[in-house]
């Protein structure tokens, strides 16, 4: 159960308290539910300004690492060797970044755009994300109405034209972008001021038409009208006693004399029609994605489509590419057409989207899903996100464990999981994982989870807190509260991020090295006993830094690495000795407070003795209140020419003092193995 909240101090009648710790630091809870010293980490490379690590799989067996920096990226191999670097990234500054692999290509997104990282089997390249061409000279990009109620008036239907808006809308960033007037595109070539722009029509714009009849009293501005039998439709922009001015919606040739024109309030027979100068119209839109209104800040692929969410100026919009191509966002009613919709009540902001068999959307006002299981189709007619939980999610990137999704709640003080529940009919539900351990959750900035390719038998969820510490979650059997445990980790420096990469956990850390704060990429190794470990005979990475030394079971104490990377006084250390930053492991036990007597019932008790069982452990300390005892090292009969042996044993100890809440702490301060299997206490009443 890991370290429970302090409120359980008096709750020793609860079973979960007997299976938990009062305190823990730098421990791992193994699948066998024993508690051992956490694994250390090995130095990989320095990475100034690195913010995140991602795993890239161009195919099942081809794996690379991606380092995301403030203004660049780098592709590395398993040894941390750089294979490709580029500053042509869609983020500067970093802001929100997303990475999604789709059929061998790696899609990248950030505050400044979208890119595609390509690998042809031998070399890497970076290209712009480009939308497909559409019919009639169009571009298959998603569009959205950002300025409802504002009208746009073009000066002509073709060629180079001017545009006048009824209110300020145009910005310098519009230059080079396309807007649509009645679904026909205009390339903006210049911006005169916020209400005037210049453009080039990509295909002829919708014409304006004056229609005449005996009486137009039944029509009003804003009505949509349709003619029969021509099939013309249009939007009414002006009305007189016998005429109405209309901007065409469909059938650009216009209605014919004698057509029956119908609107919401009546119909008339047309006696004349004529084309007129283009009218102002509120039916126009802008690119959903671009420099004016920003770029999507989260994405995922599903059912052959690219799903984009978290648009800065359209927070409740979801955009899905067509099933034909992830660069085709042409919307329509066909099954393979793109989908662009606003979803949810009270305009939620869609922070993240995950493909967990179903599409799961995480917003600040709840969680939604779209069923894809059991052959569910993702089409314009079937796309209907369903709200299944009203708790909000923070923007922190969620992670996937199996088919479940772990996320940070909007409060930033709880870790929860969206998972499928049920025996026959599966449905999505949410459970909070950190209720009993909430004191360890301190505004998480990143989450790290094992990938499906992880090689470690024991798997962990890493919650990196804003203060540079981590809360590390383990689980057994399932994710019910009594099978989940959290323990805190700390290091010499601050944790930045943890990622599962190349079958291991990799970590970004800020450390003071040589008197200067440096950002380091390391990887956790079960055999590592220090942090940021490097070989003692090649310690240039830790030059001018105080480190600890160990090797072959020997502990060599503290050294200062020279500016040349040489560790002094290491002549007697065995080959393979390592230096790095030490960390302390602590296990603090709950004191027994109550016992059940057959004569007096439940009575208060005071622990007087205890024992702890350890597996293959070296030197450690047992502290009971103010008394500390060192255990381990050599005993009678040991060969002192060999390192102190590791022992599996039960150590008994006395608990001195008469404290209301006695402290029982087992601590390891030197590099070495340490694993607690069980602990017991004897009491007096």
Strands ordered across the widest β-sheet:
15-28-18-19-20-17-16
For the sheet with most strands, the description reads:
7 strands, antiparallel
Shape: elongated
Strand content: over 45%
Radius of gyration: 33 Å
Mean pLDDT: 93
Low-confidence stretches: none
Distance linking N and C termini = 28 Å
Helix content, binned percent: under 10%
Structural class: mainly beta
Q: How many beta strands in the DSSP annotation?
A: 60
Total helical elements: 1
Protein topology:
Elements: H1 15-18, E1 23-25, E2 27-29, E3 35-37, E4 40-46, E5 50-59, E6 62-69, E7 73-76, E8 82-86, E9 98-102, E10 105-110, E11 113-119, E12 124-128, E13 133-134, E14 138-139, E15 143-144, E16 152-154, E17 160-165, E18 178-181, E19 184-193, E20 196-201, E21 208-212, E22 224-228, E23 233-239, E24 243-250, E25 260-263, E26 266-269, E27 272-276, E28 284-287, E29 298-302, E30 305-309, E31 317-320, E32 339-342, E33 350-356, E34 358-363, E35 366-370, E36 386-389, E37 399-401, E38 404-408, E39 415-421, E40 427-432, E41 444-448, E42 461-465, E43 470-475, E44 484-489, E45 494-501, E46 504-513, E47 516-525, E48 531-535, E49 546-551, E50 554-560, E51 578-581, E52 585-589, E53 594-597, E54 601-604, E55 606-617, E56 620-624, E57 627-631, E58 647-654, E59 664-668, E60 675-684
Antiparallel strand pairs: 1-52, 2-3, 3-60, 4-47, 5-6, 6-7, 7-8, 9-10, 10-11, 11-12, 13-14, 15-28, 16-17, 17-20, 18-19, 18-28, 19-20, 21-24, 21-27, 22-23, 22-25, 23-24, 25-26, 29-30, 30-31, 31-32, 33-34, 34-35, 35-36, 37-38, 38-39, 39-40, 41-42, 42-43, 43-44, 45-46, 46-47, 48-51, 49-50, 49-51, ...
């Amino acid at each position: 159960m890991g370290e429970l909240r302090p409120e359980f101090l008096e709750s020793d009648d609860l079973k979960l308290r007997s299976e938990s710790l009062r305190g823990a630091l730098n421990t791992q809870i193994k699948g066998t539910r024993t508690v051992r010293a956490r694994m250390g980490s090995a130095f990989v490379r320095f990475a100034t300004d690195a913010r995140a690590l991602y795993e890239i799989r161009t195919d099942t067996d081809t794996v690379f690492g991606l380092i995301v920096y403030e203004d660049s990226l780098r592709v590395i191999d398993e040894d941390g060797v750089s294979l490709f670097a580029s500053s042509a990234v869609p983020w500067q500054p970093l802001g929100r970044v997303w990475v999604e692999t789709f059929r061998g290509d790696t899609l990248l997104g950030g505050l400044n755009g979208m890119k595609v990282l390509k690998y042809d089997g031998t070399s890497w390249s970076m290209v712009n994300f480009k939308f497909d061409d559409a019919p009639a000279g169009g571009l298959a990009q998603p569009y959205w109405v950002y300025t409802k109620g504002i009208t746009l008036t073009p000066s002509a239907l073709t060629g180079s034209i001017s545009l006048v808006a009824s209110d300020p809308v145009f910005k310098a960033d519009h230059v080079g972008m396309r807007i649509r007037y009645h679904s026909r595109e205009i390339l903006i070539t210049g911006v005169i001021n916020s209400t005037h722009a210049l453009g080039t029509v990509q295909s002829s714009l919708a014409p304006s038409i004056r229609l005449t009849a005996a009486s137009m009293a039944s029509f009003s501005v804003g009505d949509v009208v349709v003619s029969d039998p021509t099939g013309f439709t249009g939007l009414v922009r002006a009305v007189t006693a016998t005429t109405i001015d209309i901007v065409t919606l469909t059938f650009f040739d216009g209605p014919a004399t004698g057509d029956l024109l119908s609107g919401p309030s009546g119909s008339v027979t047309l006696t004349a029609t004529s084309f007129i100068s283009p009218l102002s119209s509120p039916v126009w839109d802008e690119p959903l994605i671009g420099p004016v209104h920003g770029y999507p800040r989260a994405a995922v692929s599903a059912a052959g489509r690219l799903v984009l969410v978290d648009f800065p100026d359209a927070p409740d919009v979801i955009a899905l590419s067509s099933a034909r191509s992830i660069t085709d966002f042409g919307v329509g009613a066909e099954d393979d057409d793109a989908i662009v919709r606003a979803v949810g009540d009270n305009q939620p902001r869609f922070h993240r989207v995950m493909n967990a068999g179903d599409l799961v959307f995480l917003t600040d006002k709840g969680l939604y899903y779209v069923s894809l299981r059991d052959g569910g189709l993702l089409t314009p007619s079937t796309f209907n996100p369903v709200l299944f939980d009203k708790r909000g999610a923070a923007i922190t990137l969620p992670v996937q464990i199996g088919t479940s999704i772990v996320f940070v709640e909007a409060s930033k003080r709880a870790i929860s999981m969206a998972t499928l529940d049920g025996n026959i009919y599966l449905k999505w539900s949410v459970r909070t994982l950190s209720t009993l351990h909430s004191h360890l959750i301190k505004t998480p900035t990143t989450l790290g989870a094992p990938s499906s390719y992880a090689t470690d038998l024991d798997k962990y969820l890493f919650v990196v807190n804003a203060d540079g510490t981590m809360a590390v979650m383990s689980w057994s059997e399932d994710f019910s509260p009594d099978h989940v445990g959290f323990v805190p980790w700390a290091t010499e420096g601050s944790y930045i991020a943890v990622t599962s990469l190349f079958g291991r956990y990799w970590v970004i850390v800020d450390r003071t090295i040589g008197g200067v704060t440096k950002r380091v990429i390391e990887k956790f190794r079960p055999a590592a006993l220090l942090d940021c470990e490097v070989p003692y005979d090649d310690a240039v990475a830790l030059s001018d830094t105080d480190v600890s030394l160990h090797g072959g079971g020997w502990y060599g104490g503290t050294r200062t690495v020279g500016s040349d990377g040489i560790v002094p006084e290491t002549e007697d250390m065995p080959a393979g000795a390592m230096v790095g930053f030490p960390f302390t492991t602590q296990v603090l036990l709950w004191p027994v407070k109550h016992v059940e007597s057959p004569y007096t019932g439940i009575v208060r008790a005071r622990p007087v003795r205890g024992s702890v069982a350890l597996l293959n452990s070296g030197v450690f300390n047992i502290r009971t209140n103010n008394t500390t005892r060192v255990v381990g090292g050599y005993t009678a009969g040991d060969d002192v020419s060999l390192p102190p042996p590791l022992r599996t044993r039960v150590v008994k100890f006395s608990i001195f003092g008469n404290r209301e809440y006695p402290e029982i702490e087992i601590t390891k301060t030197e590099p070495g193995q340490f694993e607690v299997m069980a602990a017991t206490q004897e009491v007096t009443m």
